[in-house]
Amino acid sequence: MKTLAVFSAVLSLLAFASASPDTKGSERRTSRVNLPSTFTPPQAFKNANLVHVISVEKNYVKENINVLIENIDKKAQDEYFLPFTGDQMSRLGGIEAKDRKDASVGPFAVEAVEFDPTSDIQYYRIRLPKPLKPGSQQTLGITYYFLKAYSPLPASINQDESQFLAYSFSVYAPSAYTTTKQKTEVKFPSANIPDYTKLPGSGDVSEFPKKQGTKLTYGPFDEKPAGASEPVTVRFEFTKPVNHISHLERDIEVSHWGGNVAFEERYTLHHLGANLSSPFSRVKWAQQQYYNPNSYALKEMRFPLRVGSADPYFTDVIGNVSTSRFRSNKREALLEIKPRYPIFGGWKYPFTVGWNSDAQNFLRSLSGGSHILNVPFLEGPKQVEGTEYEQVHVRVILPEGAENVKFYTTIPESSITEANVEIHKTFLDTIGRPALTIKAQNLVDDFRDRELIVSYDYSFAASIRKPLIVFASMILVFVSAWVIGGVEVKFSSKK
């Protein structure tokens, strides 16, 4: 099974190599298509049937659009456009599209298009794998996420009160085309939904939405024109923290001589939930913990690591934090950490975690001095309430002398903003180590364990460079000490 996985990774990497950076420091950015300022998507499609599913079960919004599209043009078409507002574009991430009926096809190419920076409506373009003939239909599954989506209502509460969040959206799915039939489902973390916008129904239904346990259903609606919008707001109980990572720096350092891959992650964590209406009381908090009720404060995080991970550490701006626990055996490696204090709404907590792992878990050697490194692009805490990441910087530091660096990742291409190879210098380096740096934005923990595959060449001569330099340096030091020791430094006395 491991051999098959490595073989698949190599094939994926070779397929992507033409778009990857090399050690000359070339840079790759997310592709954006420039279009005329008068651009409007051609009405080549219609949405024959559409189901819009919105999940607010975690501290980010996940939306799925399952749509049956039909080519109503006289020519074959392969470009499907999806509109968003400027504010949505800044918080949108992880957009992917695929064929709902054939999972082996896709994901399709998705790219942002630019035509008028002053317009409030911007577009993503989805390229179909092959042009859709006139009159033909295809089912698309489109998934994307919104960060910073909620507003706590009320904005301030006591530390023992329940937290409620509000979310505003349109019950009509974003579309640049006429939609013949559609409905919108909203899923919640609990059935406690005290407030939601009500709309006039249609047909046998007198009023929308229909409430079933933890779900609200708006629709089905009759034909709606392109760009149709109907704003609504829902307010629901959310008893978990609203975790937001504004910045994550993830370093992965590969050592061939040590047979080790070292990981370090530096977090800037914010709680975007309701603020405290009165000063925090440690006594009240201790009393609450005795009864162990639900709390919207963040008090612990769990980091599932690869089996075989070792030497974990947890620090913050003050220093080492001792409130952590690490369990490691043949089946799991789990790092559990507790911040120095519970984190409430509006609070910030920067911290660092790190660990080591055997290189055999991630690194494979091929013929001719080539190597394949397969690591998760994103790990981080795995929480019931989820975690969102605004900016992610991943840096893979390779051995000194590595060349021909290429990479492939299963993170959505639309989320990658920059990729380049730089030189990183540290102890005993001469020419420095190549460091692949990839920047991404608006990711969520649904992308945990998505692959980052890096290939590079590392010759035998490069591998013995550092030992030879260290050996030569030691010889030079001994020779210098021997020469200096033989120098006569006494003053001669004249008789």
Question: How are the SSEs ordered, and which strands pair?
Answer:
Layout: H1 2-16, E1 27-28, E2 32-34, E3 45-55, E4 61-71, E5 77-85, H2 86-91, E6 92-99, E7 109-114, E8 121-132, E9 137-146, E10 151-152, E11 156-157, E12 164-170, E13 182-187, E14 195-196, E15 199-200, E16 207-208, E17 210-212, E18 215-221, E19 231-237, E20 243-255, E21 260-271, E22 275-276, H3 282-291, E23 301-305, E24 310-316, E25 324-328, E26 333-337, E27 348-358, E28 363-365, E29 370-376, E30 388-397, E31 403-409, E32 416-424, E33 433-444, E34 451-457, H4 460-463, H5 465-485
Parallel strand pairs: 2-7, 3-13, 11-22, 20-30
Antiparallel strand pairs: 1-32, 3-4, 4-9, 5-8, 6-9, 7-8, 10-12, 12-19, 13-18, 14-19, 15-16, 17-18, 20-21, 21-27, 23-26, 24-27, 25-26, 28-29, 29-34, 30-33, 31-34, 32-33
Membrane topology: Single-pass type I membrane protein
Transmembrane segments: 468-487
Subunit structure: Component of the oligosaccharyltransferase (OST) complex.
Describe this structure in words.
The protein is mainly beta. The protein is 11% helix and 46% strand. It is built from five helices and 34 strands. The strands form eight sheets. It has an eight-stranded mixed β-sheet, with no helix packed on it. Strands 6-9-4-3-13-18-17 form a seven-stranded mixed β-sheet. A hairpin with a 4-residue loop joins strand 28 (363-365) and strand 29 (370-376). The longest helix is centred in the C-terminal third of the chain and has 21 residues, at 465-485.
For the largest beta-sheet, the strand count, sense and barrel status come to: 8 strands, mixed
Tell me the Rg in angstroms.
28 Å
Strand neighbour order, sheet with most strands: 1-32-33-30-20-21-27-24
Mean pLDDT, to the nearest integer, reads 86
Q: Supply the number of helical segments.
A: 5
Distance between the termini: 88 Å
Subunit structure: Component of the oligosaccharyltransferase (OST) complex.
Transmembrane segments: 468-487
Family: Belongs to the OST1 family.
Membrane topology: Single-pass type I membrane protein
